[in-house]
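Human: I would love a firmer grasp of how sequence relates to backbone shape in proteins. Could you go through the record with me and say what the backbone is doing? Here is the record:
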Amino acid sequence: MYSKEELKLLRKEFWDIFGKRCEIVPELRGKRKKWLLHRTGIPNVDLKFEAGRNDVKVILEINHQSESRRLKTFEIFEKYIPILEDGFEDGLIWDFCHNREDSGQLVCRIYTMLPGADFHKRSNWPDIYNFFIDNMLRLQNNFLEIKEMVSHEIENDYQ
């Protein structure tokens, strides 16, 4: 088991090495901002990496405070399942009611995961990094294909 300080250092090392690993990926090389993450251009929609003890995930998260708006946005994304899931052999996991452990906030998540991966084990890091890069590139590219249409539908729905 790690102390709080050791866990903090492990997390920092994990993400620092991940950043360096991303620099050698041809699709990411030379980009100042490698990932969209919180800069999706759609309010309350983020792309995320999540590394845990039992699995790791690449996530599209809808985190609007209003449940009705959150669910409506999720429904809009559902219209684009074929595009969003393109290239994901087993599709994506669509969770309309996820309780975030860190904050207790209810969010909608669309994600893929690598079960059995433990970021606490350095021996898992190469597989985790490859999973993160391959799947986030795919999810980010698929998201960008539908971004304008989704954004337009959300704007029209909220007016």
About this structure: The mean pLDDT is 94. Helices lie at 4-22, 67-78, 81-84, 125-158.
